[in-house]
Amino acid sequence: MKRLLILLLILSLVISSAVSLVGCRADNGGIGNDPSENGGNENNGNGNGGAEGDGQCPVILVPPYKDYGRDTKSFADIVYSTPDIAGIVSAFEEVTAAIVANEIPFDEQVALIEGLEEGYAHLITMYNLTEIHTSKDASSEFWNAEYTYISTNYSSFSKAVEDVYVAAAQSAHKASFEEDYFGFSLDDYVGGGMYTDELVVLMAKEAELISEYNGLSTETVEITYNGRTAPAEEFIQSAIKSGKMELEKTYRSLYESKKTELTKNIYVELTKTRRLIAEELDCESYAEVGYDELGHDYSPEAMKSFIADIKNIDEIFGELYYEVFIKIDDVAESDYRNVVNELYTLYNEMDSDIGEIYAYMLQHGLYDIAPGDDNRYGGAFTVYILGNNSPFIFMTSQGDYNDYSTLSHEFGHFVDAYFNDGLNSSLDLAEVYSQALNYLTLIELKNKTAGTEQYKEILNLLYYEMYYIYDILMYQGFVAEFEHLVYELDYDQITAKNIESLIRQAGINTWGYAIPELSGWDAVMMMHTVEYPYYVQSYCTSLVAALEIMLLEANEEGAGLAAFKTLVERDENNELTFEEELARAGIKSPLREGALTEMMEGIYRFLCGRDYKGRQ
């Protein structure tokens, strides 16, 4: 099986726009959601709230505009238009035929390929926009339709792109194509590509199922109550208007039950489809496909060994719990606009390069941060908008100090994407950037707020994040184990009943026992498991490396930041493996034997000021 060397074709959510803050009310944050009749561009301005100093609410402070030489527009100025995928694919097919025929000079063949770049960038950019807008409002018929149209036709586009690679690889001009245009070896394509007509159909079905899952919202899922069937949102709003809180809870419970039922059906079909995709690619299991797409250059066996070791940190975590974590208070409330402003000041003081990238984000409105609602995706992600040559952050605010961690995490992706033009060879490495910058930010905030009233809240957040380490490993490790078990099923074994049994088995394998509350579908169904199998394991592997960077900084000011920047400014050819990239920055492999225990001992030393001696 051959991995596409232009990783933009994968469109992983590893990496929204100007925030229209009209006032202080929660429903006024973020970009607009009313697509126009002539094409659906819903960007409604680049404002940052009411008049500064009006006493009503904080505003996001935007530095003066600057041209960074990247041809970046403000997000509000990017106009959406439905891509003509059939036309783009046809153009690629014509160029492929011309390369195969080899009846025109080489420079003219290169010119033909260059002529494809605009359509290529347009399609991917519009795909980016539909991801952002469907995350903002899962109930939007316009954006769901556009997302479904692009995603279900994307495999035919990917095949057309790959066919150009194959034609160039098999051409008498192969060496010239590599040197003068592509900039990388075409050796993997000499024997042909991986896309068949059957694979294109299967991948289109996969995309359709993902779109169906993403479209499950209170406005699209119907429930039945007292003989009446209607969208759940109608029931919920009627209860809210009448002030009947118990009835609202009943409606929401019915919605969650119906959503779980629909999710089961979708996930069973999705797993079956992926099994067929693996067979079409001559892979023994879907693990080979998922690992290849996300750049996991270690084996599933190495990951399962890592997961099996998670239970061995229970004892040291227990000691930390009673010495440190039991004292953690609830995370304090905070307005996300204050968080955005404080991090701008912090990053400018912390590092000139990082500060400038943050200013670039603000100046061009390359984010959507707003409070959540039933139809807004409740998490956060970063995408690279190819046609704008810019990263973009989507984030749903929690309204408390956790926003410091979430925004700094996503900004770690943003910094990586800015430096490396959105390209990455390894998801594991991408998640090191995000988690490492989160921890470095907390260390810097702790140092900067010492002696102030805010210090207590930052210290409490830092303790909470250290406590959350265990949760990440235990929960994401469990989900990763579940995925490995699910995709080992034979086609005729893929049933809802068998999948349910594997949820429980994954808990036993990871924790040593099953937890009843985490033995149901809701425990493992999330965007990542539906859209990007084998994604969540990167949170675990990257966590260990990111914490080593944090501990470097805690022990010697600037050391962790230096390691982080060394990692970000990597070789542009992406030829090093995940573990080789870490070694280049002086960071050890998280997959080495005893890595988890060593990490927890380092955390104990950091928090308690002494070495861990074990239970006395």
Protein described:
With 616 residues, the chain is mainly α. It has 22 helices and five strands. The strands form two sheets. A three-stranded mixed β-sheet has the order 3-5-4, with helices on both faces. The longest helix has 36 residues, at 245-280. It folds into three domains: 16-209, no CATH class; 212-296, no CATH class; 297-327 and 426-616, Neurolysin, domain 3, CATH 1.10.1370.30. The N and C termini lie far apart (53 Å). The protein has helices at 85-101, 106-114, 117-136, 141-169, 174-182, 197-214, 232-242, 245-280, 286-294, 300-308, 314-323, 336-350, 352-363, 402-420, 427-448, 455-486, 496-511, 527-531, 537-555, 559-568, 578-584, 595-608, and strands at residues 222-225, 228-231, 367-371, 380-385, 390-397. β4 (380-385) and β5 form a beta hairpin.
**Termini separation:** 53 Å
Q: Low-confidence spans: pLDDT under 50, at least 5 residues?
A: 1-55
- Which radius of gyration do the C-alpha atoms yield? 25 Å
Tally of contiguous helical segments: 22
Helix content: 55-70%
Order of helices and strands: HHHHHHEEHHHHHHHEEEHHHHHHHHH
Oligomer: single chain
Structural class: mainly alpha
User: Given this structure, which CATH class of the largest domain is correct?
Assistant: Mainly Alpha
CATH level-two architecture of the largest domain = Orthogonal Bundle
Strand line-up in the sheet with most strands: 3-5-4
Overall geometry comes to globular
Strand share of the residues?
Answer: under 5%
- Could you give the count of β-strands? 5
Number of domains: 3
CATH topology of the largest domain: Neurolysin, domain 3
Please, what is the average pLDDT? Answer: 89
Largest sheet properties:
3 strands, mixed
